[in-house]
Each structure stands twice: as structure tokens, then as C-alpha cells.
Amino acid sequence: MLKNKGNMALKVVIYIVCIFLAILSIMPFWIMIMNATRSTTEIQQHAISLLPSGYTMNNLKILLGKSFNPAVGFGNSLIISLGATGLAVYFSSLTAYALVAYDWKLRQPFFSFIMAIMMIPAQVTMIGFYQMVYKIHMTNNLWMLILPAIASPSMVFFMRQYLQPALSMEIVQSARIDGAGEFLIFNKIVLPIMKPAIATQAIFSFVSSWNNLFTPLVLLTDQKKYTMPIMVSLLRGDIYKTEYGSVYLGLTLTVLPLIVVYLVLSKYIIAGVALGSVKG
Questions:
Q1: Exposed (0-12), middle (13-18) or buried (19+): which is 74, by Cβ within 10 Å?
Q2: What integer is the mean pLDDT of 55-75?
Q3: Most buried of 85, 119, 133, 273, CB within 10 angstroms?
């Protein structure tokens, strides 16, 4: 009886802690969305409010009056993020499969080389990257923000670590005996096995690409090619006043696609966690 009461009390404490952490996680987004509906005066007087106000349309008019074009920003960011995420996930999975399924002489040195590249910050290579892009006259080309995603060392590492215990070489060998080609095996057998890992990395890759400000700011000078983070970073008021409500509205518009992507892919992450617990 005492043991059951102790277990119940422990569950109550766990639930309370989880609810508290969930509220802490949601609170910054909620405050940002509420501030997007408030005027600059209201935000300056009371920085935090949990209730909406009625200045959303006024903030939108101010936002659109600052050369802020959400359609262009959304379009460019979506093209870059989807393209970079797709290339990064597919080619990283393919590289991880090569590191796990094939036994070749330089496999371990190659993996060590990938790990070494992970230690190099992207900012260190930006000068050389910009010089190369400038010489081939592609400074205002969205492809230069998409194609580099093919080489993603951290994603290769994650995919390899996931694939090692998950992939059964007997299935691969059986497919080869049946006459299946290597790309067919990878696309039809290996990729479905990696769905939870792919969903997890797709979220991280999409968020990172969508929020990337440094590289687009260096490469893009044409306003028609600006991404959402660049447009939001340029949301400044005049010398007399900054319209904080419109700035919060711009930030809200930038964050909404990330929430949608997470909600769409989160079920695969949960499925992957459940699958791992069953295997354990």
C-alpha cells in the first residue's frame, strides 16, 4: 500500500515537472506572438503580456511599408531550406550506408577525416568560399546556399551511428542475391529503416538552413533573393522610433514554418524512440 502511494506521488512530481518545463518552453513563443498583436507603446510600457491586443493589422501595414516582402522571403527561404535539407539528408544517409555496409581499406581513415572536418567552424572557410563563388559569378544564386549542404559531416556521423545497430547485413545480402542493384537496395530497404533518423536530422537541417543569416548575408545582395532572416534583420525603424510590434510580427512569420515542420515530422521521432525502447 505504501509502495503504491510512493509510486503515485513520484508520478505526480514527474507530471508537475514535465508540465512546468513545457510551459517554460512554450512561453517565449507565446510572448513573441502576443507582442506581434500589440503596439510599440504597449510593448515599451509592459514588455511581457500573456493576452493579445488589437494592433496586428496596423503592425502588418508598418511591416509591409518597410520593404518587407514576406512572399519573396518565404519563397526564397523555402527553396533553400527544402533543397538543402533534401540533399543533406539523402547524401549523408548514402555516405553513412557506404561506411557501414562496405568493408574497404580506407573506411576508418575516411570516417576520421569526416570527424576532423566537424571541428572546423564554418566561419573559418567563409572567405575562401566567397572568393570561389565570386570568381564563378554566382554570388546572387540560391544554388550556392543549397549545394554545400551535400557535405554535412555531423549528419553523416549521426546517420552512421544510427545505421550500425539498425541495419541487418543479411537483408542487404539477400537483396543482392536476388539481383537488386546497390542504389535500389539503398532507396527501397535502407532509407525506410532510417526514417526516424532522417526525420530527426531533417528537422535540425531545416531549422538551421531556415535560420541561417551569416552565409546568405555574405552572398546575397539582390533584394529579390533575400531570405526571411535577412529581411527580419533589416527591420529597423527610423532615427526617431523603432516599431517593435512590427518587428515581433516579422519574427512570428519567420518562426511559423519551423513549428509546422516540427509538428509534421515529430511523429517519426516519437516512433523512432518507441522502436529503440522495444529493441532495448
A1: middle
A2: 80
A3: 85
Least confident of 1-10, 63-72, 113-122: 1-10
User: What 8-state DSSP symbol labels residue 43?
Assistant: H
44: helix, strand or coil: helix
- Those residues with Cβ within 8 angstroms of residue 139's Cβ, 6 or more apart along the chain or in another chain: 130, 133, 219, 220, 221
pLDDT digits (tens, 9 = 90+) for 189-209: 888 888 888 888 888 888 889
pLDDT (mean) for 225-233 = 85
Question: Which amino acid is it at 80?
Answer: I
User: What's the confidence (pLDDT) of residue 92?
Assistant: 92
**Residue 188 · residue 103 · CB < 8 Å:** no
**Entry pTM:** 0.79
Residue 89 binned pLDDT confidence (cut-offs 50, 70, 90): very high
DSSP state letters, 134-156: HHTT-TT-THHHHGGGG--HHHH
CB neighbour list of residue 258: distance below 8 Å, 6 or more residues apart: 206, 207, 210, 211
Q: Which three cell numbers stand for residue 217?
A: 548575408
Name the DSSP letter for residue 47.
Answer: S
Copy the grid coordinates of residue 86: 533534401
Residue with cell 508540465: 19
List of domains in the chain: 70-235+257-279 (1.10.3720.10)
Q: Which amino acid is at 36?
A: A
Check: CB of residue 230 under 8 Å from CB of residue 219: no
Give rounded-to-5 percent helix, strand, coil for the chain.
80, 0, 20
